[in-house]
Amino acid sequence: MTIRLLNDELIECRRCPRLVAWREEIALTKRAAFRDFDYWGRPVPGFGDPGARLVIVGLAPAAHGANRTGRMFTGDRSGDWLFRALYRAGFTNQAEAVDRGDGLEIRDCYITAMVHCAPPDNRPTPEERTACAAWLGRELELLASTRVIVTLGQLAYTQVLRHYGPRAPRPRPRFGHGRAVQIAGGGPLVVASYHPSQQNTFTGRLTEDMLDEIFARAHRLVAG
Length: 224
Prior knowledge:
Number of domains: 1
Helix content: 25-40%
Largest sheet: 6 strands, mixed
CATH topology: Uracil-DNA Glycosylase, subunit E
Structural class: alpha/beta
Distance between the termini: 29 Å
Radius of gyration: 16 Å
Oligomer: single chain
Order of helices and strands: HHEEHHEHEHEEHH
Number of strands: 6
CATH architecture: 3-Layer(aba) Sandwich
Strand order of the largest sheet: 1-3-2-4-6-5
Low-confidence stretches: none
CATH class: Alpha Beta
Shape: globular
Strand content: 5-15%
Number of helices: 8
């Protein structure tokens, strides 16, 4: 098994009826601003460097972002923030991600999410999170060079630590922006960040300087 073969399998997943119905409805009805776009409307695979030392785990595809473009964090406001920070930290060749043909190149970084289908109101149910955990687990096992995992948001942080089970510290350290948790047995360092959602960026809970520091730190860790 390789990441590419896993992703080929992933995009055919129809495990969660509510998510299947929602992602396909959005792809048909579209948003007026994107009425001329051909929406992806399927599970969105992770992407990037299969030998990456940095892995980023988000929550789920946005209905009119990745669910439209077919690439994680591509075509929405959260992605605008993320890719500007990755560019400044040296992980990408450009500061924007518009669609799968935009020329974006990712260096030493792989981007995925804990849920691969767009959920209504950006809120996957506990059952949907559990169903998709197997995909994330398989990704993390295949990304064997990982040294740092940046989790965007509390749910992603919790899911990643849950994946590592007894190798993660007990009791589980509480989520906090900048929190770092070492996975035992030669595992990666998990670094928590607020998600660059509009709920956080519009309110000032997350600033660009705060996000830059997360990825500057990640760069130092994978390089050192």
